[in-house]
User: Which sequence fits this backbone?
């Protein structure tokens, strides 16, 4: 057991890699090409083999301080220098700095008479000298198969090539050998037989008149690698390979919420809006206001002083600015302030991959917080559905990694069955807003609802979506006696209800007044009764008082009478 | 012996013009092919163009820069510098017929 694990760790150690410096390739190969071993790059004519090789050498010299030898069997050194000058590689200068060495091998069968056994010592000495003269760590042989057309003895050549590759390994240089794709085999002369550590195939596929370059690692001995076909493109910065940014789903997530630009829509999403860094799909048929929703989102972001990048595939920049002014959104002002950049181009301008890369590049350049792609549907015109989907997956991956919120708009056709978008991206997005046409009473209105919104509560209601001079608004859909009411029917219903309200309130106030009057009458009555009661009470009180007074007076008189009688009887006795 | 010869011939610089055939043989050290080539070409020259030729034998290992300059790939390689046009022959010169043809000599 212990020995097994030991073996594993040593295995990991013994495969050092040399970074190719080619954008994206080192991610797929997890570090680059096998260090100190030859790698075979094969592909048909024009698939980018030579460029791949030259970029390997130039990047090595510039970025990794590894000088390189480029042995060209096809192009002359100066031709090569001119060809790659368009990519910003100055081979002349690099040669003067002893960072690279170009050597053009010229071999012409017509000039040479073969007179017996020979070997390729000349090539060995030549290459060895070139390597030693600049201390090269990288070597390119482009395309060594040309030897087969220059020299007749195949047996010797094969033996010598085998020796050459062994010798290159001994020298410890990381080599790229290019080979033209043969019929049914990887290279015309079966070079893959000799170079077996790493084989990369380049292809150039034209589909619907739009070409896509593809790269595939056929073999990489002793290393994990991506096995897919990876699109790549050649532009002014050289080769960029586009891996599906990460093979795993490990993008960071944010709990921060950002407004949709429509308070009423925010309300449908717990009152807070979307998560930052999420992807949002707005789909709907033509003319339902998808662009307006997107622009309103952008508008809100710009007002928060966040940078936005808007990729428009349908309208020109000026058109968008003009159109959005009509609903009260001033995009020009955001552009002037540097918060908004609109990038308008026709989808057919270039292939999907080129689009993706140009989007990548612009995003890296502008560093936006919000990206809009309007609409993704148009991309289908330039690629297969699955390619579009793959492209969008990669884009979403990339944006998520960068914590950029992205909103796609997609056109759905009324004839389409179900709600699946054409591009099949609906499963990948975090939130999906659908705008629908509601046709009723001879008019067309817009209804909006949230099909999904991952990780948050959201309203299940269909809202009517109104676009007016002041922007976008969601209105509650009215439930009338005949079902859902929208547009003028809704307004009529609203008016009706308002009339009812007025009449009812009028009736109420009349009744109120009557009651008031009754109350007043009642109160008047109560007052008169009270008066009556008081007078009766007074009457009664009067009788009582008289009685009392009478009683008092009578008592007094009685006393006086008694006293009087006592006095008179006394006098009489003395007499 | 090889080295001696090459040194001798280069030493006779101005004399080169006097010869009808100026040949240069590039070899790689003392490999089997190299030795065979030297012997074979000498034999052929002695047999066909005796006293009319000068043969310079160069070991590419000693002068590596020449490899690029002279577009050397396969060795041994014989270059007929004179008479013009230049002719190139590769191999150990064992195929006498082809060597003669390559040098433009009658059988």
Assistant:
């Amino acid at each position: 057991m212990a020995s097994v694990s030991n073996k594993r760790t040593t295995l990991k150690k013994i495969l050092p890699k040399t970074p190719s410096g080619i954008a994206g390739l080192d991610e797929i190969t997890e570090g680059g090409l096998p260090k100190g071993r030859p790698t075979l790059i094969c592909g048909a004519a024009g698939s980018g083999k030579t460029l791949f090789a030259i970029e390997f050498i130039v990047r090595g010299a510039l970025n990794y301080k590894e000088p390189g030898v480029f042995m060209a069997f096809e192009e002359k050194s100066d031709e090569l220098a001119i060809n790659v000058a368009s990519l910003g590689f100055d081979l002349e200068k690099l040669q003067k700095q002893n960072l690279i060495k170009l050597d053009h091998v010229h071999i012409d069968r017509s000039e040479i008479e073969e007179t017996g056994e020979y070997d390729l010592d000349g090539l060995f000495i030549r290459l060895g000298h070139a390597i030693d003269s600049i201390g090269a760590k990288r070597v390119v042989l482009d395309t060594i198969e040309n030897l087969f057309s220059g020299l007749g003895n195949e047996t010797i050549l094969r033996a010598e090539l085998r020796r050459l590759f062994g010798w290159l390994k001994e020298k410890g240089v990381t080599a790229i050998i290019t080979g033209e794709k043969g019929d049914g085999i990887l290279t015309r002369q079966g070079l893959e037989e000799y170079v077996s550590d790493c084989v990369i195939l380049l292809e150039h596929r034209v589909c619907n008149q739009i070409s896509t370059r593809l790269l595939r690692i056929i073999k990489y001995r002793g290393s994990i690698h991506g096995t897919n076909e990876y699109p790549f493109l050649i532009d002014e910065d050289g080769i960029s390979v586009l891996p599906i940014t990460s093979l795993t789903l490990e993008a960071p997530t944010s709990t921060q919420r950002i407004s949709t630009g429509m308070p009423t829509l925010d309300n449908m999403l717990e009152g807070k809006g979307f998560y930052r860094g999420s992807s949002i799909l707005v789909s709907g048929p033509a003319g339902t206001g998808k662009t307006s929703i997107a622009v309103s989102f952008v508008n809100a972001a710009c007002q928060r002083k966040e940078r936005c990048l808007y990729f428009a595939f349908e309208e020109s920049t000026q058109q968008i600015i003009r159109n959005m002014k009509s609903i009260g959104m001033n995009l020009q002002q955001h552009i002037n302030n540097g918060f908004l950049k609109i990038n308008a181009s026709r989808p057919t301008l270039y292939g999907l991959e080129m689009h993706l890369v140009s989007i990548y590049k612009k995003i890296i350049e502008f560093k936006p917080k919000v990206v809009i792609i309007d609409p993704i549907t148009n991309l289908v015109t330039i690629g297969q559905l699955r390619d579009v989907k793959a492209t969008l997956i990669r884009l979403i991956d990339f944006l998520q990694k960068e914590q950029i919120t992205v909103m796609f708009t997609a056109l759905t056709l009324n004839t389409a069955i179900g709600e699946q978008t054409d591009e099949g991206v609906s499963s990948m997005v975090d939130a999906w807003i659908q705008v629908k046409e509601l046709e009723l009473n001879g008019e067309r209105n817009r209804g909006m609802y949230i099909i999904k919104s991952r990780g948050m509560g959201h309203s299940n209601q269909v809202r009517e979506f109104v676009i007016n001079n002041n922007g976008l608004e969601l209105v509650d859909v009215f439930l009338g006696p005949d079902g859902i009411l929208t547009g003028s029917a809704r307004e009529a219903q609203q008016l009706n209800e308002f009339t009812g309200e007025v009449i009812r309130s009028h009736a109420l106030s009349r009744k109120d007044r009557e009651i008031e009057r009754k109350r007043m009458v009642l109160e008047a009555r109560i007052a008169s009764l009270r008066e009556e009661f008081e007078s009766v009470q007074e009457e009664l009180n009067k009788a009582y008082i008289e009685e009392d007074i009478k009683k008092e007076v009578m008592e007094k008189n009685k006393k006086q009478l008694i006293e009087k009688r006592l006095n008179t009887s006394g006098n009489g006795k003395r007499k | 012996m090889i080295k001696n010869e090459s040194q001798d011939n280069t030493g006779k610089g101005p004399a080169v013009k006097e010869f009808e055939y100026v040949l240069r043989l590039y070899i790689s050290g003392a490999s089997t092919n190299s030795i065979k080539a030297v012997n074979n070409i000498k034999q052929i020259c002695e047999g066909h163009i005796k006293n009319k030729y000068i043969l310079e034998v160069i070991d590419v290992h000693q002068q590596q820069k020449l490899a690029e300059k002279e577009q050397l790939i396969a060795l041994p390689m014989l270059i007929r510098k004179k008479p013009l046009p230049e002719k190139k022959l590769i191999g150990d010169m064992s195929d006498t017929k082809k060597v003669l043809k390559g040098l433009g000599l009658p059988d």
